[in-house]
Amino acid sequence: MQNIPILLDLHTHSLSSGHGTRDTITQMAHTAAERSLCFLGISDHGPATPQAAGSSYFRSLVLADRKRFGVALLYGVELNILNEHGDVDLDDALTASLDYAFISMHHPLFRSGTADSNTTAFISAMRHPGVRFLGHPDDGRFPVDYERLLAAAKENHVFPEINNASLSPDAYRTDGQCNSLRILSICKKIQLPVLLSSDSHGREQIGDMRHILPLLEQCAFPKQLVINSNPDLLWKILQK
C-alpha cells in the first residue's frame, strides 16, 4: 500500500456537537498531538442539529487558542443543508468568520428527494461563504449525480471528503464503499483533490483513516490529490 502521510484531520466533533460526545477541544488536541497530527480541525454540527451548540458558540471561536500541544487548530462548522434551495443553519456572516465549512445532509433535517434534486441542493449550498468541503457525499440515503456534483465542486473550489465513518462495518450510512470508490474515480479523472476525514465524535477516532486507505490503493488514487498530505494545498483552499 502506498505511503500516504496523514498530517491533518478537519472533520471532528467536540462536546458542542451533542450526540453524547463529551470530549473538549483541549482533550481532542492532546490526542491529535499523541497521534502526530500537525493540524486538527474542529467542525461541530450547526445549530439545527438536536443538542448542538447555538450561534454564540461559533461566534466565540475567533477567541479560541490557535495552537495546543504543538498542534495547529482550525475552527469550522458542519452546516446542515435544510432544503433543495441550499439554505443552511448558520448565517453567512458568522460562517465567513470561521476557517471553513462542510455542507452535509442529515436526517431528519433534510428530506431526501431524487438524485437530481439532492444534487441541486448540494450545489446551491456551495454559494455560502466559507464552504470548502462536501460532507459525506457518499451517503446512499441521499442519492446524487456524482458527475454533475463533482464538476460543480471543482468549478466552485469545493472539495469532497472521503469519510472513514461511512466505511466502518457498523456505519449507519448506506453504500459508503461503492459510492466512495465512485467519487475517487471521478476525482482522479478530473484532478479534483479530496479530503480524508475521520468524522470522529470525540477523541477516539481522530486521525483514523484505516477504512479509506485500501480504497485509495484499489483505485490507484494519486497521492498529490490527497489534501491531508499537503498542508500547502490546504492553505490555498482555505484562503480561497
SSE order and pairing:
Blueprint: E1 8-9, E2 12-13, H1 25-34, E3 39-45, H2 55-60, E4 67-68, E5 71-80, H3 92-96, E6 100-104, H4 115-125, E7 131-134, H5 146-155, E8 159-163, H6 164-167, H7 176-190, E9 195-197, E10 200-201, H8 213-218, H9 231-238
Parallel strand pairs: 1-3, 2-10, 3-5, 5-6, 6-7, 7-8, 8-9
Antiparallel strand pairs: 4-5
CATH homology-level superfamily: Metal-dependent hydrolases
Supply Rg.
Answer: 16 Å
Proportion of beta-strand residues:
15-25%
Major sheet: 8 strands, mixed
Distance between the termini: 33 Å
Return the CATH topology.
TIM Barrel
Look at the helices and sheets and give the structural class. alpha/beta
Number of H- or I-type helical stretches: 9
**Amount of helix:** 25-40%
Instruction: Quickly name the level 1 CATH class.
Output: Alpha Beta
The oligomeric state of the chains shown is single chain
H/E series: EEHEHEEHEHEHEHHEEHH
Count of β-strands: 10
CATH architecture: Alpha-Beta Barrel
- Average per-residue pLDDT, rounded, comes to 97
Shape: globular
Low-confidence stretches: none
Total count of domains: 1
